[in-house]
Amino acid sequence: MSSRLSHDFPPPNYPPHNRQSSYNNPPPRNSLYYEEGEDLDEPFDVRADFDGVGPRWSERNGAKKEGSVRSGGALGMGMMDDAMYRPVSTHIAPSAYGDINKSAASREEMVSVPMLGPEWQKSELHELSRRGQAELGGDKRSKAWKEWTRDQRGLCGVKWLTRKVLVFIIFAFLAALGVTLFFVIPRVPNFEFYKDAPFTVDNSTVSFNRVPTNFSFAGNLNLYGDGSASYLPIHFKSLQATLYDETTNKAIAKGDWGNHYMDHKDQQPVQLPINFEYSAVNTSDTTWNDMYQACGHKWTGTTRPDLKFRLVLKMSIVGLVNSPEMSTQISNVECPFELGTNSV
Protein backbone atom coordinates (compact mmCIF):
# COMPACT_ATOMS: atom_id res chain seq x y z
CA MET A 1 0.00 0.00 0.00
CA SER A 2 1.50 3.30 -1.07
CA SER A 3 1.41 6.39 1.12
CA ARG A 4 -0.92 9.21 0.40
CA LEU A 5 1.75 11.87 0.01
CA SER A 6 3.72 9.69 -2.38
CA HIS A 7 0.58 9.22 -4.50
CA ASP A 8 -0.36 12.91 -4.61
CA PHE A 9 3.12 14.34 -4.79
CA PRO A 10 5.58 12.32 -6.83
CA PRO A 11 9.14 12.81 -5.68
CA PRO A 12 10.98 15.56 -7.58
CA ASN A 13 13.95 14.82 -9.73
CA TYR A 14 16.88 16.59 -8.13
CA PRO A 15 20.23 16.73 -9.84
CA PRO A 16 22.83 14.43 -8.42
CA HIS A 17 25.26 15.82 -5.88
CA ASN A 18 28.09 14.57 -3.80
CA ARG A 19 26.50 15.10 -0.37
CA GLN A 20 25.84 11.87 1.43
CA SER A 21 22.39 11.86 3.09
CA SER A 22 20.91 9.36 5.47
CA TYR A 23 17.64 9.63 3.56
CA ASN A 24 19.17 8.38 0.30
CA ASN A 25 21.35 5.79 2.03
CA PRO A 26 19.29 3.95 4.63
CA PRO A 27 21.25 2.19 7.34
CA PRO A 28 22.30 -1.38 6.55
CA ARG A 29 20.38 -4.24 8.04
CA ASN A 30 23.18 -5.10 10.41
CA SER A 31 23.21 -1.51 11.82
CA LEU A 32 22.35 -0.83 15.44
CA TYR A 33 19.63 1.59 14.27
CA TYR A 34 17.87 -0.91 12.03
CA GLU A 35 14.67 -2.55 13.25
CA GLU A 36 13.27 -5.77 11.81
CA GLY A 37 10.37 -5.04 9.45
CA GLU A 38 11.24 -1.38 9.10
CA ASP A 39 11.14 -1.66 5.31
CA LEU A 40 7.46 -2.64 5.43
CA ASP A 41 6.37 0.53 7.25
CA GLU A 42 4.68 3.16 5.18
CA PRO A 43 6.00 6.72 5.21
CA PHE A 44 4.49 9.14 7.72
CA ASP A 45 1.65 11.18 6.21
CA VAL A 46 0.66 14.22 8.29
CA ARG A 47 -2.64 14.87 6.54
CA ALA A 48 -3.75 11.24 6.54
CA ASP A 49 -3.04 10.86 10.26
CA PHE A 50 -4.87 14.07 11.32
CA ASP A 51 -7.70 14.07 8.75
CA GLY A 52 -10.79 12.99 10.71
CA VAL A 53 -12.95 12.51 7.60
CA GLY A 54 -10.45 10.45 5.61
CA PRO A 55 -10.75 6.72 5.04
CA ARG A 56 -8.40 5.83 7.83
CA TRP A 57 -10.61 7.18 10.62
CA SER A 58 -13.99 7.54 8.89
CA GLU A 59 -16.81 5.13 9.71
CA ARG A 60 -18.58 5.81 6.42
CA ASN A 61 -17.85 2.29 5.17
CA GLY A 62 -18.60 0.62 8.46
CA ALA A 63 -17.32 0.63 11.98
CA LYS A 64 -13.62 0.99 12.54
CA LYS A 65 -11.84 -2.30 12.65
CA GLU A 66 -8.61 -3.24 14.20
CA GLY A 67 -5.85 -3.99 11.84
CA SER A 68 -2.20 -3.49 11.18
CA VAL A 69 -0.74 -1.48 8.39
CA ARG A 70 2.26 -3.70 8.36
CA SER A 71 0.30 -6.98 8.38
CA GLY A 72 -2.17 -5.86 5.69
CA GLY A 73 -5.32 -6.42 7.73
CA ALA A 74 -6.63 -8.28 10.72
CA LEU A 75 -4.42 -11.17 11.71
CA GLY A 76 -2.18 -10.34 8.74
CA MET A 77 -4.73 -11.75 6.28
CA GLY A 78 -5.39 -8.50 4.39
CA MET A 79 -8.92 -8.28 5.77
CA MET A 80 -10.92 -5.13 6.39
CA ASP A 81 -9.05 -3.12 3.78
CA ASP A 82 -12.01 -0.74 3.41
CA ALA A 83 -11.30 0.79 6.78
CA MET A 84 -7.59 0.82 6.29
CA TYR A 85 -5.47 3.81 5.44
CA ARG A 86 -5.54 4.75 1.76
CA PRO A 87 -4.87 7.84 -0.34
CA VAL A 88 -7.66 10.34 -0.80
CA SER A 89 -8.30 10.76 -4.51
CA THR A 90 -10.28 13.97 -4.03
CA HIS A 91 -7.35 15.77 -2.43
CA ILE A 92 -5.86 18.39 -4.74
CA ALA A 93 -2.42 19.59 -3.85
CA PRO A 94 -1.78 23.33 -3.76
CA SER A 95 -0.21 24.87 -6.83
CA ALA A 96 3.00 25.52 -4.95
CA TYR A 97 3.68 21.81 -4.71
CA GLY A 98 3.71 21.34 -8.47
CA ASP A 99 6.63 23.66 -8.93
CA ILE A 100 9.72 21.53 -9.32
CA ASN A 101 11.97 24.55 -8.86
CA LYS A 102 11.12 24.74 -5.15
CA SER A 103 12.99 22.62 -2.67
CA ALA A 104 11.33 19.89 -0.68
CA ALA A 105 11.76 21.89 2.53
CA SER A 106 9.47 24.65 1.19
CA ARG A 107 6.65 22.30 0.15
CA GLU A 108 5.33 21.19 3.52
CA GLU A 109 1.59 20.95 3.83
CA MET A 110 -0.17 22.98 6.54
CA VAL A 111 -2.46 20.91 8.72
CA SER A 112 -5.30 22.36 10.81
CA VAL A 113 -5.17 21.09 14.37
CA PRO A 114 -7.59 21.84 17.20
CA MET A 115 -6.83 24.99 19.23
CA LEU A 116 -5.54 24.40 22.69
CA GLY A 117 -7.87 25.60 25.40
CA PRO A 118 -6.89 28.39 27.82
CA GLU A 119 -4.70 27.25 30.66
CA TRP A 120 -5.08 30.40 32.81
CA GLN A 121 -6.13 29.73 36.37
CA LYS A 122 -8.53 32.00 38.18
CA SER A 123 -5.81 33.19 40.53
CA GLU A 124 -3.59 34.10 37.59
CA LEU A 125 -6.37 36.12 35.96
CA HIS A 126 -6.91 37.93 39.26
CA GLU A 127 -3.22 38.82 39.43
CA LEU A 128 -3.51 40.55 36.04
CA SER A 129 -6.26 42.89 37.25
CA ARG A 130 -5.62 46.27 38.87
CA ARG A 131 -6.70 45.01 42.26
CA GLY A 132 -4.49 41.98 41.90
CA GLN A 133 -1.51 44.15 41.02
CA ALA A 134 -2.20 46.32 44.06
CA GLU A 135 -2.36 43.24 46.28
CA LEU A 136 0.91 41.95 44.85
CA GLY A 137 2.53 45.32 45.51
CA GLY A 138 1.22 45.31 49.08
CA ASP A 139 2.50 41.79 49.65
CA LYS A 140 5.88 42.78 48.26
CA ARG A 141 6.11 45.80 50.55
CA SER A 142 4.97 43.76 53.54
CA LYS A 143 7.58 41.12 52.81
CA ALA A 144 10.30 43.74 52.43
CA TRP A 145 9.27 45.38 55.72
CA LYS A 146 9.35 42.09 57.61
CA GLU A 147 12.75 41.24 56.15
CA TRP A 148 14.06 44.68 57.11
CA THR A 149 12.80 44.42 60.69
CA ARG A 150 14.60 41.07 60.93
CA ASP A 151 17.86 42.58 59.60
CA GLN A 152 17.61 40.35 56.51
CA ARG A 153 17.79 43.19 53.99
CA GLY A 154 18.76 46.85 53.75
CA LEU A 155 16.59 49.92 53.42
CA CYS A 156 15.89 51.47 50.00
CA GLY A 157 17.99 48.87 48.21
CA VAL A 158 21.12 49.61 50.29
CA LYS A 159 22.32 46.27 51.61
CA TRP A 160 24.24 47.61 54.61
CA LEU A 161 21.41 49.94 55.75
CA THR A 162 19.81 47.41 58.09
CA ARG A 163 17.63 48.24 61.07
CA LYS A 164 20.48 48.25 63.57
CA VAL A 165 22.63 50.46 61.36
CA LEU A 166 19.74 52.88 60.81
CA VAL A 167 19.08 53.13 64.56
CA PHE A 168 22.76 53.92 65.14
CA ILE A 169 22.75 56.56 62.38
CA ILE A 170 19.61 58.22 63.77
CA PHE A 171 21.05 58.22 67.29
CA ALA A 172 24.31 59.77 66.08
CA PHE A 173 22.41 62.38 64.05
CA LEU A 174 20.21 63.36 66.99
CA ALA A 175 23.22 63.59 69.28
CA ALA A 176 25.06 65.82 66.81
CA LEU A 177 21.92 67.91 66.30
CA GLY A 178 21.50 68.34 70.05
CA VAL A 179 25.09 69.49 70.51
CA THR A 180 24.77 71.89 67.58
CA LEU A 181 21.53 73.39 68.85
CA PHE A 182 23.05 73.78 72.31
CA PHE A 183 25.67 76.15 70.91
CA VAL A 184 23.54 77.78 68.20
CA ILE A 185 20.22 78.55 69.91
CA PRO A 186 20.46 81.97 71.61
CA ARG A 187 19.64 82.52 75.26
CA VAL A 188 17.38 85.30 76.49
CA PRO A 189 19.59 88.14 77.78
CA ASN A 190 19.04 90.04 81.00
CA PHE A 191 18.61 93.81 81.26
CA GLU A 192 18.95 96.26 84.12
CA PHE A 193 18.88 100.04 84.50
CA TYR A 194 22.00 102.16 84.54
CA LYS A 195 21.40 103.49 88.04
CA ASP A 196 23.37 106.71 87.76
CA ALA A 197 21.22 107.93 84.85
CA PRO A 198 18.31 105.57 84.14
CA PHE A 199 16.92 107.81 81.40
CA THR A 200 17.72 110.99 79.56
CA VAL A 201 15.34 113.52 78.03
CA ASP A 202 15.40 115.87 75.06
CA ASN A 203 14.43 119.11 76.81
CA SER A 204 13.11 120.63 73.59
CA THR A 205 10.32 118.07 73.52
CA VAL A 206 9.04 118.54 77.09
CA SER A 207 5.36 119.52 77.28
CA PHE A 208 3.08 119.68 80.36
CA ASN A 209 -0.53 120.89 80.14
CA ARG A 210 -3.39 121.25 82.59
CA VAL A 211 -6.16 121.63 80.02
CA PRO A 212 -6.24 119.10 78.55
CA THR A 213 -4.33 117.32 81.27
CA ASN A 214 -1.34 115.56 79.72
CA PHE A 215 2.42 115.48 79.37
CA SER A 216 4.78 114.28 76.65
CA PHE A 217 8.52 114.27 75.92
CA ALA A 218 11.10 112.09 74.16
CA GLY A 219 14.16 110.45 75.65
CA ASN A 220 16.27 107.33 75.99
CA LEU A 221 16.32 104.52 78.51
CA ASN A 222 19.86 103.70 79.59
CA LEU A 223 20.18 99.95 80.17
CA TYR A 224 22.83 97.31 80.60
CA GLY A 225 22.43 94.08 78.65
CA ASP A 226 23.92 90.72 79.61
CA GLY A 227 24.28 88.27 76.67
CA SER A 228 27.06 86.13 78.14
CA ALA A 229 24.79 83.08 78.36
CA SER A 230 24.78 82.74 74.56
CA TYR A 231 27.66 81.33 72.49
CA LEU A 232 26.82 83.44 69.43
CA PRO A 233 25.78 87.09 69.04
CA ILE A 234 22.09 87.68 69.70
CA HIS A 235 20.09 89.09 66.80
CA PHE A 236 17.13 91.20 67.90
CA LYS A 237 14.38 91.76 65.38
CA SER A 238 12.70 94.04 67.90
CA LEU A 239 13.00 94.99 71.56
CA GLN A 240 9.78 96.67 72.67
CA ALA A 241 9.79 98.54 75.97
CA THR A 242 6.83 99.68 78.06
CA LEU A 243 7.43 101.89 81.10
CA TYR A 244 4.89 101.93 83.96
CA ASP A 245 4.42 104.18 86.96
CA GLU A 246 5.00 101.71 89.76
CA THR A 247 2.66 103.58 92.12
CA THR A 248 -0.42 103.57 89.85
CA ASN A 249 0.67 100.75 87.44
CA LYS A 250 -0.26 102.89 84.41
CA ALA A 251 1.81 102.95 81.21
CA ILE A 252 3.48 106.31 80.68
CA ALA A 253 6.04 105.55 77.92
CA LYS A 254 6.75 103.14 75.03
CA GLY A 255 9.70 102.50 72.74
CA ASP A 256 11.40 99.99 70.42
CA TRP A 257 15.11 99.26 69.95
CA GLY A 258 14.52 97.76 66.47
CA ASN A 259 16.89 95.50 64.55
CA HIS A 260 20.15 95.22 66.49
CA TYR A 261 22.85 92.72 67.48
CA MET A 262 24.10 92.09 70.98
CA ASP A 263 27.48 90.47 71.59
CA HIS A 264 27.80 87.42 73.79
CA LYS A 265 29.20 89.27 76.78
CA ASP A 266 27.89 91.09 79.84
CA GLN A 267 27.58 94.77 80.76
CA GLN A 268 26.75 95.99 77.26
CA PRO A 269 25.24 99.49 77.18
CA VAL A 270 21.89 99.74 75.42
CA GLN A 271 20.21 103.06 74.66
CA LEU A 272 16.56 102.37 73.95
CA PRO A 273 14.63 105.31 72.44
CA ILE A 274 11.34 105.93 74.21
CA ASN A 275 8.46 108.43 74.08
CA PHE A 276 6.64 109.56 77.24
CA GLU A 277 2.96 110.21 76.61
CA TYR A 278 0.13 110.34 79.13
CA SER A 279 -3.37 111.89 79.22
CA ALA A 280 -5.73 112.29 82.17
CA VAL A 281 -9.17 113.68 82.89
CA ASN A 282 -8.02 116.50 85.18
CA THR A 283 -5.08 117.60 87.27
CA SER A 284 -6.19 115.51 90.22
CA ASP A 285 -4.94 112.37 88.43
CA THR A 286 -2.27 110.66 90.56
CA THR A 287 -0.01 109.65 87.70
CA TRP A 288 0.04 113.15 86.21
CA ASN A 289 0.67 114.72 89.61
CA ASP A 290 3.54 112.31 90.40
CA MET A 291 5.35 113.25 87.20
CA TYR A 292 4.57 116.99 87.56
CA GLN A 293 5.84 117.19 91.14
CA ALA A 294 8.96 115.10 90.43
CA CYS A 295 9.93 117.25 87.43
CA GLY A 296 8.68 120.66 88.70
CA HIS A 297 10.75 123.77 89.34
CA LYS A 298 13.25 123.52 92.17
CA TRP A 299 12.12 126.23 94.54
CA THR A 300 14.29 127.24 97.44
CA GLY A 301 13.68 125.06 100.45
CA THR A 302 11.67 122.46 98.52
CA THR A 303 12.58 118.88 97.67
CA ARG A 304 11.19 117.12 94.64
CA PRO A 305 9.93 113.56 95.16
CA ASP A 306 11.59 110.63 93.38
CA LEU A 307 10.09 108.53 90.59
CA LYS A 308 9.45 104.79 90.67
CA PHE A 309 9.32 102.90 87.37
CA ARG A 310 8.67 99.35 86.24
CA LEU A 311 10.04 98.38 82.83
CA VAL A 312 8.63 95.50 80.74
CA LEU A 313 10.68 94.33 77.73
CA LYS A 314 9.23 92.11 74.99
CA MET A 315 11.94 90.58 72.79
CA SER A 316 11.79 89.09 69.31
CA ILE A 317 15.04 87.14 68.77
CA VAL A 318 16.14 85.26 65.66
CA GLY A 319 16.33 81.56 66.52
CA LEU A 320 13.57 81.59 69.13
CA VAL A 321 10.00 80.65 68.29
CA ASN A 322 8.37 82.51 71.15
CA SER A 323 8.72 86.15 72.18
CA PRO A 324 10.14 86.16 75.70
CA GLU A 325 9.38 88.96 78.13
CA MET A 326 11.18 90.26 81.16
CA SER A 327 10.63 93.11 83.62
CA THR A 328 12.78 95.12 85.97
CA GLN A 329 12.11 97.85 88.50
CA ILE A 330 13.93 100.93 89.63
CA SER A 331 13.18 103.44 92.40
CA ASN A 332 14.64 106.66 93.71
CA VAL A 333 14.89 108.04 90.19
CA GLU A 334 15.47 111.79 89.94
CA CYS A 335 13.75 113.55 87.06
CA PRO A 336 16.43 114.58 84.55
CA PHE A 337 14.82 117.94 83.68
CA GLU A 338 13.25 120.89 85.51
CA LEU A 339 10.14 122.81 84.55
CA GLY A 340 10.32 126.59 84.32
CA THR A 341 8.99 129.07 86.85
CA ASN A 342 6.17 130.04 84.55
CA SER A 343 5.23 126.44 83.87
CA VAL A 344 1.74 125.16 84.50
Automatic annotation (TrEMBL):
<protein>
    <recommendedName>
        <fullName>Late embryogenesis abundant protein LEA-2 subgroup domain-containing protein</fullName>
    </recommendedName>
</protein>
<feature type="transmembrane region" description="Helical">
    <location>
        <begin position="165"/>
        <end position="185"/>
    </location>
</feature>
<keyword id="KW-0472">Membrane</keyword>
<feature type="compositionally biased region" description="Basic and acidic residues">
    <location>
        <begin position="57"/>
        <end position="68"/>
    </location>
</feature>
<keyword id="KW-0812">Transmembrane</keyword>
<feature type="region of interest" description="Disordered">
    <location>
        <begin position="1"/>
        <end position="73"/>
    </location>
</feature>
<keyword id="KW-1133">Transmembrane helix</keyword>
